[in-house]
Amino acid sequence: MKRPNLKALFIIIVLALSLMVTLGQGCIIIGTPEITEPPPEPTPAPVPEPINPEWTPPLTTNNRTVELPSIADVVALVKPSVVAITTELVSYDFFNRQYTQEGAGSGWIIDEDGIIVTNNHVIEGATSITVTMDNGDSYTADIDTIATDPLNDLAILKIDAEGLPALKRGETSSMRVGDWVIAIGNALGQGIRATEGIISRKAVNLPVSQGQTLYNLIETSAAINPGNSGGPLVNLAGEVIGITSAKVAQIGVEGMGYAINIDTAVPIIQELVNKGYVTRPWLGVGLYTVDQIAIRQLRLSIDYGVVLVQVVANGPADKAELKEGDVIVGIGGEEIFDVHELTQILHLSEIGEPLEIKYWRGDTEYTTKVIPIESPRP
Predict the structure, then answer these.
(1) How many other C-beta atoms are found inside a 10 Å radius of the C-beta of residue 266?
(2) 271-289: per-residue pLDDT in tens?
(3) Which residues are known to be catalytic?
(4) How far is C-alpha 378 from the chain's CA centre?
C-alpha cells in the first residue's frame, strides 16, 4: 500500500488556513449574535378618555312589542268579497284559424247589488265573462253593461245578485311607506289566495304601454301575479286602498308589484257606474313624442316636445288652427317634453276653459288658445 505524502498534505492545510484568514470577514456565522446594547423600552399607549363614566346598557323589554292585527282575520273578512273572473275571447292562430282563448283575473264587490270592480285588461275583448264567488256561486256578467276606462285600466261589471258582501274604501293619504298591506286575488287562475307585504313607495308614475301611463300608483312588496289583476289591495282594517294590476307587475323584477290608488280610482268608478264611460278634456289630436326618427322624417327644427300627427276636423285643435306637423312645447303655462306630460296636464284642465298652447311650426314659435271639450263617448 502506498503511503500518503505527508509533506504535500501539510502544504494543503497551511494554504487552507491562510485562505480562511483572508476571507474570514465574508463568512456566514451561524448562531445567535451577541447583543452589546439592550433594546429600547416600548412607549406605553395613551389611556383613552372615557365617553361617559356613568353610562349603563339599556334595560331589556322582555320582548314585549305592540301586537298587530291578525292577517288571517283580515283575510277572513275580505275574502268573501273577492271574486274570480274567467273570460273567453276569440283569437286567431298563425293560419288565421279561429279558436277560443280563456283568461283569468280578479275583481271585488263594491256594491251589494252586484257591482264589481276589475281591470280593463282582464275583460278587454271578452265574448263571455263568468264571475265566481268565494262560496262557489257563479254568475254570467252582462257584456252589454260593461263599462271600461282603458286609460286608467279600470272596468265595472254587473251581475244579477243582491245582498253581496261589499268592501269598504280605505284612505291612502295617511298611509306610510312600511305599512302592512294584503293582496287578495285569483293568482294564476288557481283560486282566491292572499299575499302580504308592505307599501314600498307611494305616488309612482309608470308607463305601461305606448301612449299609456298609470299615475299615483302604490308600489308594494306583496306578491302580485297574473290572475291577481283587478283584485283588492287592503290595509289591516280590511279596507281597499288599491286595485292590483299584474299588467304593471310583470316587469321581471321581484318584490315590486303595483296597485291603482283607490283615491284615483273612485271618481272614475263613479263615472263608469253613473254614465257608463269617463269624460275628459279633449283636444281632438293624435300625439307623438319628438324623437330622432320624427326629427329626421319630419325635418323638425326643434328636438323636444310633442308633434301633432293627427288633427280631427272641427275639433278644438282644428278650430285653434293647429295643423299636423306642429310641435307643442308648452301647455297651460308648463313646458312639456313628451306625450305623458301633455296628457297629464290636459286631464287636470277644465272642459270649456281656454288653455294656452305654445308650439313650433317650421322655424317659428307661436302661441294660441284651445278650448277643450268633453271627450267623445267610446
Answers:
(1) 14
(2) 999 989 888 899 999 999 9
(3) 121, 153, 229
(4) 29
